[in-house]
Amino acid sequence: MTRFFSHHERHRTAAILLASAILATLPFAGDTARGEETVRQVLPGAPVAATPQQLTREKAPDQSEIERFCSNIADAARDRRYVLQAEELKQLQAGIDERMKALDAKKAEYETWLKRREVFLARA
Length: 124
Fold this sequence. Notes:
Elements: H1 7-29, H2 63-123
Helix pairs in contact: 1-2
C-alpha cells in the first residue's frame, strides 16, 4: 500500500538523511584528530611544513535542531509552492480563455448559418 507523506514528514526525513550522510563522512575526515599522524615525505632543502591544525569533530545535530531547521524552511517552501500553484492556475486560466474565445467564434458561425437556413426556408 502506498503512503503519502505530509510536507513536514518529507522535510524531517530529508533532514535526517542529510544528517546521516554528514555523520557517515566524519570518521574519514577526522583521522588526524584522533592522534594518528600522517607520514609526509620532505625533499632536501625544502622548508619545514607547518603542523596541520587539529580538526575538531562537530556534534551531530539532535532531533530538536532538525525540527527547528524544518520549521524554519516550512514557510518559505509553502510560499514557493503557492507561487508555483498560482502560476499553474494562470496558465490554466489562459487556456480556458482561449477555448472560450474559440467556442464563441463557433457559436457566432453557427448562428450565422442558422439565420441563413431560416431565410432559405422562408423563401422556399
